[in-house]
Amino acid sequence: MKQASRKRTILIVDDNPANLGVLTSFLKRYGYKTPVAIKGELALKRAKHIRPDLILLDVLMPGIDGFETCRQLKADEATKDIPVIFMTALASTEDKIKGFEVGGVDYVTKPIHQEEVLARVATHVRIRELTQSLQEQTIELAEANAEIQVLNEQLRAENLRVSADLRESEHKYKTLV
C-alpha cells in the first residue's frame, strides 16, 4: 500500500481505547498524524482547533453521538468542509443513510478492516485536496476574469479615443483638400 505523500492529519474519534490504539498506530505507519478524541464534545473542539484533513468518527459514544457530532461539525463554518467517515457496528441501511444525511462522506462498519480504512481515508483526503485546489483555481480565474474586464474597458475607451482622433484627422484632411 502506498504511503501518504505529505503528512495529513486524521482526527480519530472513538470512546474505545483499543480501537483508538489500533487505528492510531496503523495510520501513523502510513504517514498520517492521528490526534484522538474520546467523545463528541471533545471532537468538536479539537476539529476546530487543529483543522484535520479528515475525521474518523464512531457513532455510538457517550454524550453526543457521532451523528450529532457530525451535524454540529457541518453546521460550523470552520469545520463544515472536513470530510467525516463514520465507523460503527451499526450496519443497517437506515443508519448508513442517516450518516450520509448528517454530512458524512463514507461509512465503515466494525470490525474495522485496516486496509479498507486506509483506502477510504486516502481516497477522501485526495478528494478534499482536489476540491480545495479547484476552489483556489476558481478564485484565481475569477480574479483574472475581473482583470480582463478592466483591461477590456480600457481597450474600449482607447478604441473610442482613437476612433474619435481618426474622425477628427479625416475631417481636417478633407478640409485641407
Average pLDDT number: 93
Question: N-to-C terminal Cα separation, in Å?
Answer: 85 Å
Q: Tell me the radius of gyration.
A: 27 Å
The outline comes out as rod-shaped
Q: Enumerate the spans where pLDDT stays under 50 for 5 or more consecutive residues.
A: none
What does this structure look like?
The structure is a single chain. The protein is of the alpha/beta class and 177 residues long. The protein contains 5 helices and 5 strands. It has a 5-stranded parallel beta sheet, sandwiched between helices. α2 packs parallel to α3 (66-75). The longest helix is centred in the C-terminal third of the chain and has 63 residues, at 114-176. The chain is rod-shaped and about 100 Å long. It starts with 9 loop residues before the first strand and ends with a helix. The mean pLDDT is 93.
Write a concise synopsis of the structure shown.
With 177 residues, the protein is of the alpha/beta class. It has helices at 17-29, 40-50, 66-75, 93-101, 114-176, and strands at residues 10-13, 36-37, 54-58, 84-88, 106-109.
Describe the SSE topology.
Blueprint lengths: L9 E4 L3 H13 L6 E2 L2 H11 L3 E5 L7 H10 L8 E5 L4 H9 L4 E4 L4 H63 L1
Parallel strand pairs: 1-2, 1-3, 3-4, 4-5
Any descriptors?
single chain; about 180 residues; alpha/beta; 5 helices; rod-shaped
